[in-house]
Amino acid sequence: MNPLRHAIAALVCAAALLLPAPSASAAEAARPSFEAHSEVFELVGRINDGRLTLTLDDWASNEPITGARIEIDFAGHLGLAEAQADGTYTLDAASFAAPATYPLTITVTAGEQSDLLATDLVVGDSAATSAIAAGIGIKEIGIAATLTLLGAVVAVRLRRRKGEAA
After folding, report:
1. Residue 126 per-residue DSSP state
2. What is the pLDDT of residue 26?
C-alpha cells in the first residue's frame, strides 16, 4: 500500500473515532417529555411509539402509585390515562403529533388524595429531534469537515512529493 493510501486510511479511522455513536441516552433525551409535581405527587410523562406513558410516584417517598385516576386536559380535550400492568399509565399521543408546546392541566386522584398539576409538553420538529438522537451536532460536523480537509491537504502534498521524486 502506498503512503498516500496509508495517510487517507489513517485519517478516515481518526474521523470515525472522533464522531460519537448514537446512544440510548441521547435518543431518550430527544423524546418529548414532561415532569410535574406537587407536595403529594410526582408525574413524569414521555411520548414513545405514539403513546404517552405516565409514571406516577409519591413525591415524599418516590414509591410508585398504582390504581390512580389521571385526567389530562389540553386545549379543551380531556384524556383519561389507562393503568397498565407494569404500574405505568398510558394515553394515545396522536393529539401531540404536531411540533408545538402543549400546556397540560392534569388531575390526579389516588385514594383519598387528589391534586391538580400544570406543566408544558414540548414536542419538537422530528428532523431536529432525529439529529439530537443521533448525537450529531455542529461540533461533530466541524470535526469531520476539518479532518476531511486535512486529509485532502496531506494527499496533495504526498502526490506532489511523489511527482518531484520522479
Report:
1. H
2. 47
